[in-house]
Amino acid sequence: KRDFSIVSYVKYLTEDKCVCCCDDYNIKDRTHIEAKTGRYHFEIHHMISLGKNKELDNVDNLAKLCPACHASLSRGSANENVQKELIRKIFKHKNNILTFCESYFDEKDFETVVDLVWKSLK
Hints:
Strand content: 5-15%
Strand order of the largest sheet: 1-2
Number of helices: 5
Shape: globular
Radius of gyration: 14 Å
Distance between the termini: 19 Å
Order of helices and strands: HEEHHHH
Structural class: mainly alpha
Helix content: 40-55%
């Protein structure tokens, strides 16, 4: 079973900003305030799709995204170049995620890691 406490940690105990588009947009233009919490709504994205591999349910594999960025990272929802640019932005803002992906793929070349993460999108 998945460990939802990891997702909750990233969702509720990290800064309320999209680690993808935070330099480009004001968050109030990308999401809504949740009635239950009074906080902006974010979604948690596994950079490397989870599947049945439990080791991927790791805080360093999770990105806190606005709904627009999260939807854009679904397989087939945006073109390859757009999705790869979003992955690059996440790596720029969250070095721990880049390090996790480099380690998982045993690869240090930045663009190769971007490509491997892109290929793992669901």
